[in-house]
Every structure is written in C-alpha cells, then in structure tokens.
Design goal:
5 helices, 157 residues, mainly alpha, single chain
Length: 157
Amino acid sequence: MYFIAILAVIITFIFTLGSIGGMTSIGNYLDPASLLLLLIICIPLLIAAGATKDFINAFRLVISKKEPQSIREIKRAIHAVELTIRSLWYGSLLNAALAAIFVLSKCNADEIAMMWRSLGVSIIVVGYGLGMIILLLPVKTKLEFKLIEWMHDEEQG
C-alpha cells in the first residue's frame, strides 16, 4: 500500500508539471545541490540524536509482517520519524531563507527578471522537503496504529 501512495505522489507531480504553462520540463524542478543541502541537515540530526537505527527500523516495522518486539521499539521508531519530519521541514525553510538572502544580496535593480528566477530556484528545496514529508507521513501513521494495537492487545490480555 505504501508503494501505491508513493506512486500517487509521483503521478500527481507529473500531472502538475503538465498543467503549469511554460514549466513542463522536469529539469526545471531538479536541483541536486538543494537536495544535498537538505540531506546534510537531516542525516546528521538523526545521527546526533542516536535515532538512525530507529529510523531504519520504522520502515521494517511498517513494511514487514513481523510483529514489533516491544512498545519501546514502536515509540522509538515514531520519535525517529517525527525527528526526520521536523528536520526536513525546518531544514528546507532554513535553506530556502539562506538562498533567498544570497540572491537578494547579489542582485541589483537592473536584474529583476533574473532575481525572480533565482528566487524560484531557492524555493525548490521547500518542495523537496515537503515531498519527503508527504512520503513519511504514512510511515508515522502506520507506526501509531501499531502502537494503538499493541496497547489494545495488552489491555485485552
């Protein structure tokens, strides 16, 4: 089911590209440097928090049919996904703000058209962050459902 959600996001992205006049090339939306900067913020935060293993474990808990071993395992996975979502959100906003400041500080009044294009590129990182967050939200929700089921099973038995 998770792969269907990913496919739906990709299809929505492609249809959105087709509906925007003049911006139909996917190359207009690719900025590897922005994506790299976002990952440079997100991955060290996971490592610093000691949540890398729990983040990877979150996907194992969601995808596999194997039951979690403890409630602690589920809660740690939820917190790791929440940390990743927050770091993607704040990291993308920070990168966009810094890029916009750089663009605005380097442009003069004669380069207004170029300034707007550069500001558009600086906002792409927010799109990357939001896209990754959209893909992580089902993981978080499934983990929360597992936590609810675990707690319900403990009450019953």
